[in-house]
Amino acid sequence: MQRFAFCLCMLLLLSACSGTKVPVTRPPGASPSPRSSELEGLASYYAEPHHGRRTASGEVFDTYRAMTAAHRTLPFNTVVRVQNTSNGKAVEVRINDRGPFIDGRIIDLSLRAARAIDMIRAGVVRVKLKIMSQETGPRRTASGTPLDTVQDGACENLCAGDDLVVSLDGVSERAMQ
Hints:
Layout: H1 2-16, E1 31-32, E2 38-45, E3 68-70, E4 78-84, E5 90-97, E6 105-109, H2 111-116, E7 125-134, H3 156-176
């Protein structure tokens, strides 16, 4: 009886480890094109609640002047051509943020970029994305200034400390005389 139970358990274990193939379905809304630099899916735009806040790349989001976008995985400063499939209009945007975080959407555009492809009224449209370049240069803000520049006044405390040392040295020199 124990042999029978052991054999039955082994048979069940081996059948569980068999090479059963499970079909994998693609998530709705996003489908890769034949080339890996192209992607098709839904685009949306984001505007006022996020305007003036820092993006994931560290720059300040300017929805009215910047031709930028958010993508979940593309590296920052990647330039992407976004084409509205319903009207054929296209715009090039630079990835500077992360998102969208809604299932089925592949990119979030700034308001200016969304206007360029005439998607404001619809809000969400089907688009084709094509990677134009993956830049590795210095990051820039929406106004074009490099992000690695030093902010005015950032070294004030250091300069104040140096001034204090110099003034104390002067006091000690006068005290010795």
